[in-house]
Specification:
The chain is α/β, with parallel strands linked by helices. It has helices at about 15-35, 45-55, 60-65, 80-90, 145-160, 180-190, 200-210, 225-235, 275-290, 295-310, 325-340; strands at about 5-10, 35-40, 70-75, 95-100, 115-120, 130, 135-140, 165-170, 195-200, 220, 245-250, 255. It has 11 helices and 12 strands. It has a 10-stranded mixed beta sheet, with helices on both faces. Strand 6 (about 130) and strand 7 (about 135-140) form a beta hairpin. The radius of gyration is 20 Å and the shape is globular. The model has no long low-confidence stretch (mean pLDDT about 95). The structure holds glycylglycylglycine (GGG). Glycylglycylglycine binds near residues 80 and 231. The site of glycylglycylglycine has 7 residues, from helix 4 and helix 8.
Length: about 350
Amino acid sequence: MKAVYRVSVIKGDGIGPYIVDRTVSLLDWMGENLGFSFDFREAPAGDSVQQKYGTALPADSVKIITGSDVCLKGPVGETARDVIVYLRQKLELYANIRPFKNLPGVPSKWSGVDFVIVRENTEDLYKSVEDVGEDHAVALLVITRKASERIAKTGFEMAALRRKKLTVVHKANVVIAYRLFRNVCFEVGKKFSDVAVDEMYVDNAAYQMVLNPQIFDVVLTPNMFGDILSDLAAGIVGTIGVAGSANVGESFGLFEPVHGSAPTLKPENANPTGMLMAAKMMLEWLGAKKNDSRLGKAAQLLEQSVFDVLRDGKVLTADLGGHASCDEFVEEVKKKAFARLR
Ligand code: GGG
């Protein structure tokens, strides 16, 4: 029997709806060709939803998301705190996984870059415990043993499957709350004797990432530093337009591009690669969860077809130095996928 997977979809703002629609139709096409299908359910959320209904994430949308197998999310604008930050905490999506690697055909000042930022996703300054007045504002920075342990375990497990190196990033010399994060990471690391672990203050990590990005394998960070280093890392591999990410917990996953909603960019000119890479990560995660190798095959096919287009360099969006529209890029990915399926 044909497997049907329920995917909740947040289209988001700016370029979001445009790149999400194209990603969804490509996923439909892949399912038709590989023997599975998706039941896509839109979960409205974001700035436009806030304007229309007075809330950026209506309860009905949360119900659609929690009733699905997985969530695919486009970028949200100014309401990120009420949408993605809220969902990460509510659904305990404690690990934000952001891979950064030189991609074929994508110009970068560096070569040999291949690392993953493993970002704690539920606390730190993102806890949303804040008090903002006329003359002063306070934000609580929360670090717990539980959250530090589970993200450290995720980071070390990933390092064990990669080049076996992990860097704990913090600022424990100045903000002593980060000592707990740092110490727990090292405690967890004792169980992974084959992984070499070191540590860096976040300012030095930013400096080293620019000078020497090849030294990193897994970069384990608290929430806020992971967000900031992600944009730096995206710049290192050439453009934030190509980076996908996963927000995962024990039983649910939400997948989104690293980039924002790019409100000044015409959606027709957007680079859909980051969104497609998020979809690829979604297929991998769902395939492993449902033990369905067809989804794993689709993930590989999607990634290889995008790489084929990038490597060819003939149909590229403006951020990659080309003149192609988002539609032309996606059509080319489909052609490459079709050729690989024959
Ligand atoms: N600068 C990239 C961007 O805007 N990303 C979206 C974003 O910041 N989302 C919130 C988050 O990941 O914490």
